[in-house]
Design goal:
Rossmann fold, single chain, alpha/beta, 6-stranded parallel sheet, 345 residues
Length: 345
């Protein structure tokens, strides 16, 4: 038995990766069991894909007696399964899982620049070379394997390679927080408008900066050019990406950049800041574009250049799509995990 384990109830990037790990593991080993928190939004998605799931109900509080109760619940559910390996996707669960099953190999999947609890894992999977180097710098001495996140491009209707229209739609999505740099994007849109560059834009998401972004939209007089939309559910993400022409990731820091590969899988021209993960995904002017972070002028200049010279990016969408098939597909993840299991089984 191999167990794939994650806590938390939202549908962020690690949860999407968790589903794909479950699918890949099912291809190479049996039996597989996926463990999630009771009430997690993952449950219906797991059911749709016929992934066997156990729901655990416990409080993620790092002090007694709650920690003791959590360990006992995990032990009660998982020990009878006799797991050989447990993949843990949240570092805060590592001490709980290790305490519950101390003789089982535990591999932590690290999705963020955080070294919390990594010492409990027998090995780590980093989603990028940047994350691996971060973990090494935090003095983690055990094995670290780099396995990037993936997207399942082949699961959706084949994307079309559209020519860039005269009035392109610029899109972005994510959680509305400072590190995502949406304020940088909005200022870049303002600079485009000042130069009379034609465009429409849409930013989708949720978070505490929603009203601040609305204020910037008003302050820069972008009411006719920029639409702020609510969070895009997974089932609607493909339709959202197909509705835009250029995708912008304006973050200050990213461990990977899941939304980049999702946009590339829909043959979108991606412009991303050099903020960590994107540099490992994109080769500038080959399968996308890289710009300095926290630089609205650089972003505006890149957008202006692409909009005014559509021929320069005509090959980018197809190259982006092929790089996804070659490097970020379910088959690639399956091969990575198969090689890992050969070491630990």
């Amino acid at each position: 038995m191999i167990v794939n384990f994650i806590s938390g109830k939202d549908l962020g990037g690690p949860k999407q990766s968790f589903i794909l790990y479950s699918k890949a593991l099912q291809k190479i080993y049996s039996p597989i069991c996926s463990v999630i928190r009771k009430g997690a939004l993952l449950k219906p998605l797991m059911d749709e894909q016929n992934i066997k799931t156990i729901e655990l109900n416990y409080l993620r509080l790092n002090f007694w007696p709650f920690k003791y109760w959590a360990i006992n619940k995990i032990k009660k559910q998982l020990k009878p399964l006799l797991p050989k390996i447990i993949f843990v996707h949240k570092a805060l669960d590592l001490p709980l899982v290790v305490a519950a099953l101390p003789k089982t190999k535990v591999i932590g999947v690290i999705h963020s620049f955080s070294a919390s609890n990594i010492e409990y894992a027998d090995a780590l999977i980093a989603v990028s070379e940047k994350v691996k180097q971060f973990l090494i710098n935090k003095n983690y001495k055990k094995p670290i394997y780099v396995i990037p996140n993936i997207t399942v491009a082949e699961a959706f209707p084949s994307p079309k390679n559209k020519a860039l229209p005269s009035v392109p739609v610029i899109g972005a999505m994510g959680v509305f927080r400072r590190t995502k740099g949406f304020h940088t994007l909005i200022k870049a849109l303002f600079l485009l408008k000042k130069k009379n560059v034609p465009f429409q834009a849409v930013i989708a998401g949720k978070g505490k900066l929603y009203y601040y972004l609305q204020y910037l939209r008003w302050r820069y007089n972008l009411q006719d050019q920029l639409l702020l939309k609510s969070w895009i559910a997974n089932k609607n993400k493909t339709a959202f990406l197909d509705s835009i022409d250029l995708y912008v990731l304006s973050s200050k820091l990213e461990t990977f950049g899941m939304v980049i590969i999702e946009a590339m899988a829909r043959k979108k021209r991606v412009i991303a800041t050099k903020c960590g993960g994107p540099e490992e995904i994109l080769t500038d002017a080959v399968n996308g574009y890289l710009i300095p972070k926290k630089n609205s002028l650089a972003l505006a200049n890149k957008l202006e250049h692409l909009i005014k010279n559509p021929q320069v990016s005509q090959d980018i969408p197809e190259k982006a799509y092929q790089s996804i098939l070659n490097n970020y597909s379910l088959e690639v993840l399956t091969n990575h995990l198969q090689n890992l299991l050969r070491i630990y089984l």
